[in-house]
Each structure stands twice: as C-alpha cells, then as structure tokens.
Amino acid sequence: IVSLRNPATKSESKYLLQKDAGDAARGTSVYEVNCFNEPHRSWFINETVCSNGKIFLPTPIDPLFLLLPYLEHHCTERAVPLEQVLIDDEFPRVAELVEALKPSRISLLADEKRAGNIVAYRYNESKALSWLVSKCHRLSVVVSKQDGSAARSKNFIKEEKENEVDGDETAALQTAFGLVSDYLSLEMGKKLANSLGFPEDDNVSKKRKSIADLESVQVKRIKKEEIHETTPIKLQAPEKKVSAKAKALAKAASGS
C-alpha cells in the first residue's frame, strides 16, 4: 500500500500496487483503498472483541486517472519520457506506476514521440476527453441495467420532464459522469460535462452532489432550530372586561 496524489483533490490517498507474479505481461494492477469507519462498530475475532471497526476495501482503478494530471502538468508543451513525467517530490512512489502503464494505454491520453530507443509523450486534451466520454458511455450502459433505485443515483440533480423519451438514458449518463468525475479535477470535470453535452447549469459540482445536499439540509435544520429557539412568540393579551362602575369613574375623571 502506497501513498499517491489523488487526481481529483491533489491530496494524499492510499493505493494498492499488486504485481502479477504469474503473468508478467499483465504488469502491475492498481487498486484504490477505501476506508469505511462508521461509529459504534467493532469486530468479533474468535474469542476477542476488536474495538477498531474500520474496514479497508481495495477496488480496481484505471491507472490512467492517476497519470492524467501529471501529463497535464509536464507534457502540455513538449514530449517527455514517462519516467520524467511520473516525478513527485511529495509522493515519490508514483514512479512505480510505470509498470502499470502500457504504451497502448498511454496513447489514449497523449501523442507518442520516438527518437531511437527513447519514447516520449505529449499530452493531447482531445484524446483525453474522447477517452473520458467513451468511459462515461460504457459505464452508463452498466448503470442503466441496474435494478430499481440502484440505477437512479440521488447524488445528482436532474429535472424530470413529462413524456421525455430518453430520460432514463440521460439519468444513467449523468450518474456515470458523476462516478468518472470523482477522479478528475474540477476543471477537467467541467470540460467533460461540456463534451457530454450537459447544459451549462449542470456543469458545476455534479461530483458528489449528495454532499452539497446534505450540507444544505443541515443548514436548513440549523436555521429552523435557531428560529424556534430565538424568535419570541407574540401572544395576544386577553381583552379585559370593563365594569359599569369603572366606566362611570372614567367618565367622571374626564370631566364630561
């Protein structure tokens, strides 16, 4: 397990690099390590109880997502050998991704330049967007086949229109876009949204929309609680009945 730069957040994330000893041609497989740490959770191991209820789940990740930001940074103006692209003082073990990246795969994001035995790559944004669009469409097919609510992610906001023939396909594509954009910078996510033909107002913050929704709900709840706690309740004072004697005294006091 190594620490690498997250392609979306630029911060540290954990990844598992596994070499296939049985098939050298396959090279190294890359997995994203996700940690689930819910409160009030323990593990029962034989006759003991482990209070640390964390669970780490490795899931496969396309190493091109990890390569993309380095290509954007180093190879926009000129072709650079892969060994010089994967250089990061903060995360030096990114160099190990060389074994997980095949030239045929790198060519999906960059133009290959050869000079003798030297192979260099220059970032090609059009290729990268075509690859991302294709990945979104392939993923949307899988999403659309899911049963029930699994195919309709609540992470994204969409307008429901009556008699919309391709509504399900659009929803599936938006879900696929959200999943893919979790591995992209915000700027690249916007470019991908434009390439997919999403309206301009759909481009912003589709990634993990549920987080924004949750924060909005929490803010509304806080405001609601503040209103209940701080807003004084105005009560109407009951009308006092004036007796005939009091009316006479008031009339005498007024001099009439």
UniProtKB/TrEMBL annotation:
On whether Transmembrane is a keyword of this UniProt record, the answer is: no
Q: Where's it mainly located? A: nucleus
Where are the annotated coiled coils located?
none
Name the Pfam families for this protein.
RNase_H2-Ydr279, Ydr279_N
Q: Which GO terms describe its biological process?
A: RNA catabolic process
- CDD domains in the record: RNase_H2-B (cd09270)
What positions does the domain Rnh202 triple barrel occupy? 1-62
Question: Could you tell me the keywords of this UniProt record?
Answer: Nucleus
Tell me yes or no: is Nucleus among this UniProt entry's keywords.
yes
Where in the cell is the protein located?
A: Nucleus
Please give the GO cellular component terms listed in this UniProt entry: nucleoplasm; ribonuclease H2 complex
Protein family per UniProt: Belongs to the RNase H2 subunit B family.
Assembly and oligomerization: The RNase H2 complex is a heterotrimer composed of the catalytic subunit RNASEH2A and the non-catalytic subunits RNASEH2B and RNASEH2C.
Protein name in the entry: Ribonuclease H2 subunit B
Q: Record the organism.
A: Anopheles darlingi
